[in-house]
Amino acid sequence: MLALRRLPRFTPRLAGIRGNATLDTVAHPQADAPPPPPPSSVTAKSSTVASKQSENSSGSASVNGNGGGGQRNGGRRVQAAQGPREWCRPIAKGVEPAYDYALRYILKDAAFMRKELEQLRAAVEAEETKPEGERDAATLQDLREQVRILEIQSEVNIPEVRWKAKSGLADMSQPIYRHLVEQKWREEGALDLLMERIYQMNVVPDLLPELRPSFDLRIKYAEAPPDSNYLRTRVKRKYKPVEPGVFLVPEQTRRLPELSMTLFHTDTRLYTLMMVDLDVPDPENQTFTSYLHWLQPNIPLSAFTTTPTVPLNTHTRYVPPHPQRGTPYHRYVLLMLPQQSATEPINVPVLEDSDRLGFNFRSFAAQYGLDGAQGGGAHMWREVWDETVSHIYQHTLKKEEPRFGKMPRPDPYADLKRSKKYL
């Protein structure tokens, strides 16, 4: 039989064990340690710089839990207020000559391209000042395209620019930052995941024939409620980002979602927001139809607006998702499509609650000039029925909850079961 006993609180043999902090300094007095060397100006200066760098790195790591110095807001990275706000060299000057030479070469190449960019801008200005009859439209367009390319190439390799774009400090008024943020969205998996879920779950072509998103649309709903009924009314649930295609419970979507987006055009354009359920049963026709949950036209957006600047529930009000009992999972699609005119609002009548069921998106889009192939934003998720849907029907929709299910199979032994088994 193996017996266990508790060691005394202070034992001398533990002094030889080395952990995160050595216990020798506790066991032996500091008189045995040699005296510190006299401080010098060079040593003090270097130690001050090192301490500042360690404070910055430790501060950012303690705030964010990682060394990146930022937190994630949906798909974009947002710099923490306590983290570093300026780029710092990863290697001190003079430590690695190859790095110093590479950095000098990058800055020299950027300065050379900036001079070339100034010459092209002067050429564009000279071409624009010509009279209307002497101006060459093809040459002017070609010069503007060269200016656009050089605005990006002259700064794309600078480490400070790339660090700011990755850390959430991008200035969206500059073309280089819009290019880097869009490149990250298109090439690092966010857009691929969205399009994969949309095509796998047949949102295209069930809802619209084609979809080519041009900006990053993100949504947040309240986190799932706790299992304990005691905590449901006592714990305040936070809003969390929703990954495209995941399952949510109806209680999470009872309130309006929080929308955020990252656009890449500086001019203000008008968009139409709509939310559609694609899987509402239609028992009369033995098929499924769509239901309009939300509609808000004429939303102005640009690269400088990360959230909508106008109220989003003033047109066709938001009705929370309510998948019917006995039906498979429902696909809920949120679209924000560009309007045909970027500046002129469209006049869309407010839809009554009776007109939501059977909403035909294709005829609506054809009538008001909405086309998913021209860009916009999209998101989608799935839900199934639970007990909270009954409360939505009772208190929000104020009508009787329908029930669906499979038709019972005919029993081939029904006549035999009604007959007597024994004579």
Secondary-structure blueprint:
Elements: H1 24-27, H2 41-64, E1 70-73, E2 76-79, H3 97-128, H4 137-153, H5 159-166, H6 175-187, H7 190-200, H8 203-206, E3 216-222, H9 229-232, E4 239-241, E5 247-248, E6 258-262, E7 269-282, E8 287-301, E9 330-338, H10 361-368, E10 377-383, H11 388-397, H12 414-418
Parallel strand pairs: 5-10
Antiparallel strand pairs: 1-2, 3-4, 3-6, 7-8, 7-9, 9-10
For this entry, give a set of tags.
423 residues, alpha+beta, 5-stranded mixed sheet, 3-stranded antiparallel sheet, 10 strands, elongated
Please tell me about this protein's structure.
The chain is an alpha+beta fold. It is 33% helix and 17% strand. The strands form three sheets. It has a five-stranded mixed sheet with strand order 5-10-9-7-8, with helices on one face. It has a three-stranded antiparallel sheet with strand order 4-3-6, with no helix packed on it. A two-stranded antiparallel sheet has the order 1-2. Helix 3 packs antiparallel against helix 4. The N terminus is likely disordered.
Give the strand tally: 10
Strand content: 15-25%
Series of secondary-structure elements, N-terminal to C-terminal: HHEEHHHHHHEHEEEEEEHEHH
Q: Ranges with pLDDT <50 over ≥5 residues?
A: 1-7, 9-34, 39-69
Helix count, DSSP H or I runs of 4 or more residues: 12
Arrangement of strands in the largest sheet: 5-10-9-7-8
Structural class: alpha+beta
